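Intended use. Records like the one below are meant for learning the mapping from a protein sequence to its folded structure. Do not use them to infer anything beyond what is encoded.
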Amino acid sequence: MKISGVDIRPGNIIEYENGIWRAVKTQHTQPGKGGAYMQVEMKNLIDGRKTNVRFRSAETVERVRLDTKDFQYLYAEDDNLVFMDKDNYDQVTLPRDLLGEAAAFLQDGMDVSMELYDERPLSVQLPETVEATVVDADAVVKGQTASSSYKPAVLDNGVRVMVPPFIGSGTRIVVDVYEQTYVRRAD
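Structure written out for the chain above:
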């Protein structure tokens, strides 16, 4: 589907110079002289390159629709992660760096959503929040007010997060996967 260059919004997937790009940031500019344009910061979904491009209103780009499919995380093998298609049980192996920091939150049997372009996996979306166990939490410093102070803690997957003072070692908490922040105590 063709769209005008000034209609690109953050999150849009477009085809540009024989690559598949995700618009990360956009800024519409209307200079005093000349026509308006859209300054778009894009990230290549295949090789991870970033670029900034100016699109004028007369230019059109191809907007790409990605297929979304449900997969299940199976196991890690060296620097690769193995997922299983929940429909036909085919296995897909992807590099760990495709998930970035979120890979630390993968748990055996976790359901994930994978975006595919021409049957090629481009990104993996984990659930927004996961449960984890605090394995090490610093002691509360006397005199700190409970309302605004947080202390560092290490989770069972090795990730460090800031938690409220009442959270101790062995406590199950809910963590935001992409922000890597404490959400609440697990039920």
